[in-house]
Structure prediction request, 226 residues.
Amino acid sequence: NAGVMQNPRHLVRRRGQEARLRCSPMKGHSHVYWYRQLPEEGLKFMVYLQKENIIDESGMPKERFSAEFPKEGPSILRIQQVVRGDSAAYFCASSPPGSLNQNIQYFGAGTRLSVL
Amino acid sequence: SQQGEEDPQALSIQEGENATMNCSYKTSINNLQWYRQNSGRGLVHLILIRSNEREKHSGRLRVTLDTSKKSSSLLITASRAADTASYFCATATGANNLFFGTGTRLTVIP
Prediction:
């Protein structure tokens, strides 16, 4: 049973380009979360999705960032027109359905985005 | 902000000693969790304590929770070099998302 898979592990973009980060949750998991981590800091919640629904995007910047979790395929975190301040590690986590109040999350290894 | 804070920010101990990390948070919670992160890796769940629990054990880990003080502690007994990592507390408030603290970097010296 594969864990949470994120790709790519490392992504280099120039300012103004688009970054697409992919996350495949653990098998049977229907909840996906995205977090951002700056060096030497904790994880900051960005967005919580279920299949085809955004449940909570209170941590997402209002502009340039979007996320989706389609019926088929991985969850995608998309950053348009990247700036140097977007450089960070982006982690995806998943949890199984019916896990409210037992919300242990299983994390991927992260995607490290570097903006030149 | 709902984010918690860990104390100390960094801790260095000798192998075999105990390590204690503290976490403070700001809002009412359903549960509090501790995670470990090895350098350059994702987080691994260690232990969950519910808001109506005061203490929980798992192997060499002991977690306490004081909801009146909005604080928790993680004790690692008989530390090993392999325990070297960053440790984060995370609070769950009812929705499924977690709010992470700033982390404690633990170094265990062989």
Notes: The mean pLDDT of chain B is 91. The two ends of chain B are 38 Å apart (CA to CA). The interface with chain A takes residues 3, 30-31, 33, 35, 41-45, 48, 88, 92, 94-103 of chain B (CB under 8 Å).
